[in-house]
What we know:
Elements: E1 3-8, H1 14-23, E2 28-31, E3 34-39, H2 41-50, E4 56-65, H3 69-77, E5 90-98, H4 105-124, E6 135-143, E7 146-152, H5 174-183, E8 192-194, H6 201-210, H7 231-242, E9 253-257, H8 260-272, E10 280-283, E11 297-300, H9 308-327, E12 332-337, H10 342-346, E13 352-358, E14 361-368
Parallel strand pairs: 5-6, 8-9, 8-11, 9-10, 11-12
Antiparallel strand pairs: 1-3, 1-4, 2-3, 4-7, 6-7, 12-14, 13-14
Helix pairs in contact: 2-7, 3-4, 5-6
Amino acid sequence: MSYTFLATAAFGLEGVAANELKRMNIPARAENGGARFEGTLLDGYRANLCLRTADRVLLVLAEEKVRTFEELFQLVSSIAWEKLLTRDASIHVSGKCVRSQLMSVRDCQSISKKAIVQRLMQKLRVNRLPETGVVYPIDIAIVNDLARITLDLSGDALNRRGYRTWNGEAPLRETLAAALVDLSPWRKGVRLYDPCCGTGTLLIETAIKAISRPAGIRRSFACEKYAFMPQAEMKALRAELTDSYDEQTDFQIAGSDINPEALELSRRHIKQAGFENRIQVKQQDLRTLQLDGEPGVFLINPPYGERLSDQKSARELYREIGLLLKRHPGWKLAVITADPAFERSFGKRASKKRRLYNGRLECEFYIYE
């Protein structure tokens, strides 16, 4: 049986997530807010295990225009909840309303839950639902009067890989870091260096891709507890993917930072990610950094200088990044920043640019090839 799924992604990363799914032989198309795909329940589970740039995998249960609470009630009631939820399911309904006739999120949640409960009690022939069992997170999103009812298969967001338990200042989300790796000139077998490595997220996400490790293989997902999911097939798929990559695959990934506290966090994260003694980091001022050996790619998420007091030092750093590239002939560079004056400070126009968002900050990803 075929189902519809939505792999949600940050603005600007929808196409990157869709391309990931296509590389998994799952046809997908990008749309606002993510990548939509059709497939089996096992495909939905595979997406959870393997996607590196998406935020969540949602099972789409219904989509239809609604302009009244009665229409919303009828739409939610039309879903065969008795085939999805158990008798003791804990039903958690979240919601959002944007530019629609129905703009009260609380009322939409209440009406939707009432519709679910009434249908379940009728179909299961019970007078009450204890809600003491597995949590089923259901979302009611109404945008421009189009209601989309989904069930979250992921649980914790997909960026929660399990290796980052300590956060430094302004951490880069794992999913965005993975997207930067994909969009950069770096490819497997190529050397990578991050001279502003901070807490190590870019280095770790590059290493995960270098060894072809499924990003979610070391964590669990909400759907693993859902009764309607194919438990035996899911267990076999996880085992198959666990055996599909080699942790000892060779790579050349290293970094440095001037901040010793950030480096301490970086070392902890690298160890938790399983790359201890394989990703080397050291304390080093970018202005004096000189690397020997074969050329590679510099991948950098430098300070943005968002506060006016920090802007001058940030732009001086951008100039130093330009000098760093000059000191390393043959190297390529990819850098993300929210500062629109980056190219002027750096001293050269980028070969390519792409607009992305780091949280709510509008950024440009500059690539020098």
